[in-house]
Amino acid sequence: MTVQDRGHEQKMLTTYLLRPGSFDQASDVLERHWPTLRRKGLVTGEPSWIAQGSGDDGPFVVELVTWGVPDAVDRAYLDPEVNAIWQEMFALTESRGARPPVDWPAVTQLAGGPAHTAAGGTAPQTLTAYQVREGHTGRLAELLPRCWAALRAAGLLVPGAEPRLYAGENPHGPFLAEHLAWSDPRGPAKAAADPAVAELYGQAAALAEERGDRPGVERCTVRPLRFGFMTETPTGEDS
C-alpha cells in the first residue's frame, strides 16, 4: 500500500443530487468508489462517510472523502477506472435550478472527530448548510459551539456524539456544514421551541443569506450508509 504524506490531506464534501428512483444504483457505485481510490493510493485510510437524505427539491447523497496525495483529484480524473466510476455516478444525478448535479467543494474540518465514528443505530442525524455572509465565517464558527452547548444542556444531543463542523466555499460563496446526532426523533422541533437554543440559532441564521436558489440555512435529516469497507480505522488498518 502506498505510504502517504499526511501533510497533503484534503477533505472533500461531495453532494450528488440524485434522479428519483436511482438510489439503489448510486449505492452500488459508491460502494466501489472509496475502495478504488484507496487501491490507487489516492485517499487516506479514513473511510469515506456517506449519507442519504432528501431536501425540499429532492433526494441527495453526500460523501466525505479525505484525499491523501498532492493533486489527488486531477490524478483521479485521469485514471480510467476512477473516471468511469465518476461518469456512472454523474449519470444518476440531475441539476436543480442553480444547483449543479454534483458539487464537490474542498472543506476544512473545524470541529469533531472522524465522521464515520458518529452515533449509529436509530439516532436521527441532520446535516445543516449555512450560506455564510461574506466575512462572517469565523463569527459563525465561534457561535455554533455555543448552540451545541445549549442543545446538550437541553438533553437533545446523543451523549458522546461530537458535533462536526466543516468550512468550505462553493461557486456561490462560503459555507459551513454542521453534522449533529440527536437523542430525540423530535430533536430539531424541540430545539426550535427551547428559548435558549432558539435564540442562539436565530443569531446563527442572521449570519447566513439566500444564494443560488438555496436558503441561508438548510437543515436536512440524513441517514448514514454502511458499506463493508467502512470497517477500516482512520489509520487504514482493519478494526
Commentary on this structure:
By secondary structure, the chain is α+β, with helices and mostly antiparallel strands. The protein has helices at 23-39, 72-78, 80-90, 137-153, 187-193, 195-205; strands at residues 10-17, 49-55, 58-67, 102-103, 106-111, 125-131, 164-170, 173-181, 217-224. An eight-stranded antiparallel beta barrel has the order 1-3-2-9-6-8-7-5. Strand 7 (164-170) and strand 8 (173-181) form a beta hairpin. The longest helix has 17 residues, at 23-39. The chain starts with 9 loop residues before the first strand and ends in a 15-residue tail after the last strand. 34% of the residues are buried.
Task: Spell out the blueprint of helices and strands.
Elements: E1 10-17, H1 23-39, E2 49-55, E3 58-67, H2 72-78, H3 80-90, E4 102-103, E5 106-111, E6 125-131, H4 137-153, E7 164-170, E8 173-181, H5 187-193, H6 195-205, E9 217-224
Antiparallel strand pairs: 1-3, 1-4, 1-5, 2-3, 2-9, 5-7, 6-8, 6-9, 7-8
Helix pairs in contact: 1-3, 4-6
The helix-and-strand class reads alpha+beta
Question: Please, how many helices?
Answer: 6
The rough form would be described as: globular
Average pLDDT metric: 90
Strand content: 25-35%
Unreliable residue stretches: 1-5, 233-239
Separation of the first and last Cα atoms: 17 Å
**Rg from Cα:** 18 Å
- The neighbouring-strand order within the major sheet is 1-3-2-9-6-8-7-5
The count of domains is: 2
CATH class of the largest domain: Alpha Beta
Task: Describe the main β-sheet briefly.
Answer: 8 strands, antiparallel, barrel
Helix-strand topology string: EHEEHHEEEHEEHHE
